[in-house]
Input
Amino acid sequence: MNTRKIAVIAVLVALAVGTNYAMTPLFNVKLMDVIVFIGGICFGPVVGALIGVISWAVYGTLNPYGFFLPIWFATMLSESIYGVVGGLIKTSLNEYRSGAKNPPETLYVFFGTLGVLLTLIYDVITNIVFGYVSNWSILLAVIAGFVPFGIAHVVSNAFFFGLGCVPAIKALSNIIGVDKSGIPEE
Output
């Protein structure tokens, strides 16, 4: 890995952490998830997972909402899922580019839908851990965590993933000097 790629990875971690702090007043609306996902697409599942873990390691330690060790571990693990899936989806995107005749607009819908699914997984895992450590019913914790906080998280990630992935992947791919990771030219 060359120094340019290492610098870009460090910038992605800094962006993920910095945007989380900047968006603190908007509870559960954050760019971290899409940044980690894009890092996974551009650098692979292992690096994508590390971007997620490191971002939450920093943000979670200095979390404006407080620090609680089990939830900190759950959020680090859950955030890494975005990077892993981003890295794994790259192969599918390359196959899409080589054989599909669908317009690139379908990618926007694909990324938005994927953002929703990954966010639901993230929220279920973190709410289960919250319920367990708080001695709540797991079902109650998942329901209470989803309404209204999970709804805001899912809707915002549908928007961020749907509209942000294609241009961000193109830009980042140009910076690090790799193919556009399956994103066709429009």
